[in-house]
Amino acid sequence: MLVLGTLSIVLMTVDHRQHHLEGARAFLSVVVYPLQWLVDLPRTSSEWFRESLSARRELQEDNASLRTQQLVLNTRLQKLEALEAENRRLRALLDSSFQVGDSPMLIAALLSVDMDPYRHQIAINKGSLDHLFEGQPLLDSQGVMGQLIHVGPLTATAMLITDPSHAIPVQINRTGLRTIALGTGTIDRLELPHIPINADVQVGDLLISSGLGGRFPPGYPVAEVISVEQDPGNPFSEVIARPRAHLDRSREVLLVWPPDLPNPAPLLESNPEIEKPAQRTASETEVAPTP
Predict the structure, then answer these.
(1) What b/e readout covers 250-280, taking b as 16+ CB neighbours within 10 angstroms?
(2) C-alpha separations of 203 from 144, 199, 224, 236 in Å
(3) Where is the signal peptide (predicted)?
(4) Cα–Cα distance for residue pair 48/34, rounded to 1 Å
(5) Per-residue pLDDT tens digits of the chain, which is 291 residues long
(6) Thinking of the domain 104-276, which architecture would CATH place it in?
(7) Is there a contact between 144 and 209 (Cβ–Cβ < 8 Å)?
(8) Hey, which bits of the chain come out as E strands?
(9) CB under 8 Å to 123, separation ≥6 — which residues?
(10) Where are the domains of the chain?
(11) CB atoms within 10 A of CB 62
(12) φ, ψ at 171 (rounded to 5°)
């Protein structure tokens, strides 16, 4: 033991003064490095695996959070687009209500559409509790849509002007020629029967409600003439018109009461949703969308 201790001191002294063992030390470090790496491998592998799992978990959580945020934002964007479209429809409908004059009016929403191809009928969310009555006309922002044919306490059914069993008295706005617009069962087509072949009817003529019969208020747009065909062997022209109202797109309708309503005060007091005549201001044209 003493010999070994003395030899170690001599070797350290020689190495410190003359660096004779530098090469041996480098050789031994190269030889020992694999052993050091193998000894340290479990610890480094454990740390790498732990960091990888942590990073993967964080990435998964961040990904899930971003997906949720994207879904929420997309949903809000869709709702915003729907609210903007509804706001535009309500603005147009309210602008249309200014043409009604001094008649009380009420806005209703569609509940359902009759899917029978031979009947053009819709259901709305207003009824007799809102003082609706059978035969009451309904409009949209573009023109006449139809009339109520059945009124329940909370809902009502309306027949559109394109229903095969519907007819509305109209007149050509340009000439004043009176006729009847008949439903054809096609959502964008009305027929004007018994128009003399020599009558002044042109494509593009506007048809308005004549007010005859007292069912529809006069002066409202009904349709636009899109086709006039004349056969020399037939005394009548074949005239086709397209409804002005958006019968297959409108979501809100405007219900009006006759201008000669004898005493509208009880009607207005019992239903605050009914628009009071001659009391609207320009500021009321800003319609807030329903949530």
Answers:
(1) bebbbbbbbeeeeebeebbeeeeebbebeee
(2) 20, 13, 8, 16
(3) none
(4) 19
(5) 777 778 777 767 766 666 666 666 676 677 777 777 777 777 777 777 777 777 778 888 888 888 777 766 765 665 566 666 667 766 666 655 545 555 677 889 999 998 888 899 999 999 999 899 999 999 888 889 999 999 999 999 999 999 999 999 999 999 999 999 999 999 999 999 999 999 999 999 999 998 888 888 888 899 999 999 998 889 999 999 999 999 988 888 988 887 665 444 455 555 666 665 544 443 333 333 433
(6) Beta Barrel (2.40)
(7) yes
(8) 105-113, 121-124, 137-139, 144-151, 156-160, 167-172, 178-183, 190-196, 206-209, 221-229, 236-243, 252-256
(9) 110, 111, 112, 113, 114, 155, 156, 157, 158
(10) 1-100, 104-276
(11) 10
(12) -145, 150
Tokens 């409908």 correspond to: 93
Paired residues of 229 in beta bridges: 238
Name the nearest CA neighbour of 154 among 216, 111, 90, 121. 111
